[in-house]
C-alpha cells in the first residue's frame, strides 16, 4: 500500500494521464505523468506523481492502465531502427532524462527535482515537473504555469523510451489500490455487496457511480402523486394493511382476476380486449401481488409472475400504513449480493449469497432517466462494443391516456445505467434465466416513470449466478452488443447478432437472431 500524502491532485485540474513508469526510489511502485488543464496546447503543466497523491483520480489511473494494456495487446513489438539506435544517441529533454534543474518560486512551491510530497528522487537531478511549478494549498497540489522550469512539448509524448519504460512497469500496486477503492464502495451499499475475482486482476470501472434512486435528466418529468388508497387501514388484514382488492384504490388499474368475475363481467372484458380498447378494471376483483402468509411470504404470486401484469404497490399517500402487505419493492433490496468475474468470457456477473425462493424480490434497475431522443443520441455516439445499458420504460406504449392521445415510443423515457446505477447492472443474459424483470408502479396515473424490479422465477441456490433473458419482451428487455446490453431498437438494424455464451441447455446460439 502506498504511503498516504497530505496533498493530492484534484480531478477538476487534470486533463489526462500520459504515461507511467516505476518510482525511482521503489521499483515495485508506479508513478504517473499528469497533464494539467491549460490553455496552452503545446506546453501545459506536466508532473510525475505516485499513487499516494492520486487518490482522488484513481478512476483516471484505471482508465489509463486499461488503455495501456489494450495498446500493449495490439501494438507491434518489433523493434524499429530508431529504437535500436536509441541507446547510442544522446537523450533529448523530451525523454525526461536531460539533467536540467529549475527552481520553483515561493515557500510552498515544489522543486522540479522533488516529488510532490517533498521527497527527493533517487536519480541524480531527477526532473519531475515541466512547464510549471507545483504549489501545496489546503491539502491540494496546484500547477502554476511558468517558463523558467524545463519545457516539454506534450505533443511529442509519450516518447518511445517512455513507452518502453511503461511496458516494463509493475502495475500491481495500482491494481490493488483500485480494487480496494471499488470494494470499499460496494461495502457502503445496503446491504453491503461483496466482490470476487479469481480469474484475473480486472476491477469494474471506478467511474461508475452507485445510486439508490433514479436520477432525472433534462426533459424528464415525474407525475405528482395524486392519491393513495383511502378506505384501507393499518389494522386490516391481520394488521397487514390492505385486505380487499375492490377497496384498494391503488389496484384500480391492476389486471382483473378473471376467475372471480361474473360471466357478464368476463364477456364485457373480452369484448373490450377484442376491440383493442383499454379494459375498464375499476370495481373488478383483483389480486394482491405478494403472498403474505407461509414460508414464501413476500414472494410474487404466480398470477403476476407468470403473466407479467403490472404490479401496483401502495404509496406514501395511502392510509394502509408502512407495513402493508402491498409494499415490497419500495422497501429496497434485502438480499446479499456478490459481483464476480465469470470464467467463460462473459465479463462480470452477479450472484446471490443466500438461497432465493421463486417469486422473491431481488433488486431494481437504476440509472439516469432520459428522454427517448436523448437515448437515440447516446446510442449514436457510442462506438462499436461500448457498453450501453439502456432500458425503455415502454410498458404502456400504445395505451390511451386521454381523448385521442396514445402513448408512443417517442414519448417514453429510458433508463441509462451506463454511468450510474446499482449492482443489477452486472446481471448477464441467459436463454434459460432464473430471474425476470417486472414493472412496479407506485402511482397509477404515471405511465412514464416506474420501477424495473428483478424477481426470482425459480428457486435459486446460494452462489448461483443471477441471469435474465435479454430477448424477453415481457417488460423491459435490453439488447446486448457482445457482453453489454443495449435497447430493443438495436434489434432492428441487423448489427447486433452475436454469439451467445450463456451455456444453457436450450441456448439459442445467438442473441438478436
TrEMBL record:
- Spell out the GO cellular component terms annotated for this protein, sorted alphabetically and separated by semicolons: chromosome; nucleus
Where would I find the Pre-SET domain in this sequence?
Answer: 227-332
Q: Where in the cell is it found?
A: Chromosome
A Pfam match? Pre-SET
Q: Which InterPro entries match?
A: H3K9_Histone-Lys_N-MTase, Post-SET_dom, Pre-SET_dom, SET_dom, SET_dom_sf
MF terms per GO, please? histone methyltransferase activity; zinc ion binding
Principal cellular location given in the protein's record: nucleus
Keyword annotations from UniProtKB, A to Z: Chromosome, Metal-binding, Methyltransferase, S-adenosyl-L-methionine, Transferase, Zinc
Stretch list, region Disordered = 68-122
**Domain SET stretches:** 335-471
Q: Which domain of life is it from?
A: Eukaryota
Instruction: Please verify whether the record's keywords include Metal-binding.
Output: yes
CDD domains for the chain:
CD_CSD (cd00024)
Residue stretches making up the Post-SET domain: 496-512
What the entry lists under PROSITE patterns is as follows: POST_SET, PRE_SET, SET
One of its GO biological process terms is:
methylation
Q: What is the protein's given name?
A: SET domain-containing protein
Organism of provenance:
Elsinoe ampelina
Amino acid at each position: 500500500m502506498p504511503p498516504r500524502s497530505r496533498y493530492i491532485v484534484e480531478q477538476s485540474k487534470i486533463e489526462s494521464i500520459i504515461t507511467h513508469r516505476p518510482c525511482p526510489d521503489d521499483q515495485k511502485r508506479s508513478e504517473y505523468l499528469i497533464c494539467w488543464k491549460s490553455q496552452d496546447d503545446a506546453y501545459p503543466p506536466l508532473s510525475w506523481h505516485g499513487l499516494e497523491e492520486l487518490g482522488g483520480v484513481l478512476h483516471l489511473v484505471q482508465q489509463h492502465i486499461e488503455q495501456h494494456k489494450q495498446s500493449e495487446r495490439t501494438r507491434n513489438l518489433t523493434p524499429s531502427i530508431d529504437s535500436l539506435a536509441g541507446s547510442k544517441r544522446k537523450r533529448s529533454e523530451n525523454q525526461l532524462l536531460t539533467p536540467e534543474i529549475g527552481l520553483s518560486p515561493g515557500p510552498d512551491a515544489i522543486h522540479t527535482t522533488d516529488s510532490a510530497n517533498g521527497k527527493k528522487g533517487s536519480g541524480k537531478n531527477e526532473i519531475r515537473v515541466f512547464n510549471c511549478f507545483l504549489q501545496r494549498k489546503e491539502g491540494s497540489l496546484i500547477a502554476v504555469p511558468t517558463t523558467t522550469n524545463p519545457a516539454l512539448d506534450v505533443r511529442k509524448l509519450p516518447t518511445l523510451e517512455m513507452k518502453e519504460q511503461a511496458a516494463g512497469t509493475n502495475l500491481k500496486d495500482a491494481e490493488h489500490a483500485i480494487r480496494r477503492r471499488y470494494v470499499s464502495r460496494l461495502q457502503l451499499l445496503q446491504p453491503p455487496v461483496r466482490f470476487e475475482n479469481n480469474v484475473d486482476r480486472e476491477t469494474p470501472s471506478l467511474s461508475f457511480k452507485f445510486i439508490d434512486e433514479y436520477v432525472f435528466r433534462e426533459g424528464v418529468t415525474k407525475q405528482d402523486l395524486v392519491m393513495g388508497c383511502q378506505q384501507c387501514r393499518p389494522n386490516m388484514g391481520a394488521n397487514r394493511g390492505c385486505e380487499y382488492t375492490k377497496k384498494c384504490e391503488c389496484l384500480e388499474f391492476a389486471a382483473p382476476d378473471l376467475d372471480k368475475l361474473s360471466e357478464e363481467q368476463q364477456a364485457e372484458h373480452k369484448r373490450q380486449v377484442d376491440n383493442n380498447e383499454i379494459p375498464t378494471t375499476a370495481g373488478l376483483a383483483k389480486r394482491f401481488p405478494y403472498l403474505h402468509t407461509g414460508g414464501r411470504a413476500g414472494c410474487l404470486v404466480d398470477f403476476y409472475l407468470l403473466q407479467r401484469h403490472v404490479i401496483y404497490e401502495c404509496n406514501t399517500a395511502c392510509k394502509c400504513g408502512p407495513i402493508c402487505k402491498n409494499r415490497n419493492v419500495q422497501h429496497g433490496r434485502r438480499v446479499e449480493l456478490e459481483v464476480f468475474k465469470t470464467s467463460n468470457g462473459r465479463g462480470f456477473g452477479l450472484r446471490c449469497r443466500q438461497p432465493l425462493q421463486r417469486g422473491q424480490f431481488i433488486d431494481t434497475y437504476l440509472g439516469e432517466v432520459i428522454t427517448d431522443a436523448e437515448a437515440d443520441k447516446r446510442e449514436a455516439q457510442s462506438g462499436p462494443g461500448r457498453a450501453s445499458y439502456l432500458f425503455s420504460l415502454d410498458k404502456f406504449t400504445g395505451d390511451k391516456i386521454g381523448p385521442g392521445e396514445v402513448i408512443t415510443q417517442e414519448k417514453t423515457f429510458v433508463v441509462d445505467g451506463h454511468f450510474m446505477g446499482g449492482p443489477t447492472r452486472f446481471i448477464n443474459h441467459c436463454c434459460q434465466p432464473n430471474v425476470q424483470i417486472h414493472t412496479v408502479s407506485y402511482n397509477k396515473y404515471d405511465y412514464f416513470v416506474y420501477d424495473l424490479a428483478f424477481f426470482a422465477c425459480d428457486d435459486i441456490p446460494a452462489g448461483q449466478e443471477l441471469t435474465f433473458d435479454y430477448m424477453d419482451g415481457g417488460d423491459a428487455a435490453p439488447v446486448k452488443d457482445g457482453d453489454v446490453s443495449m435497447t430493443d431498437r438495436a434489434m432492428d438494424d441487423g448489427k447486433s447478432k452475436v454469439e451467445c455464451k450463456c451455456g444453457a441447455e436450450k441456448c439459442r446460439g445467438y442473441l438478436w437472431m
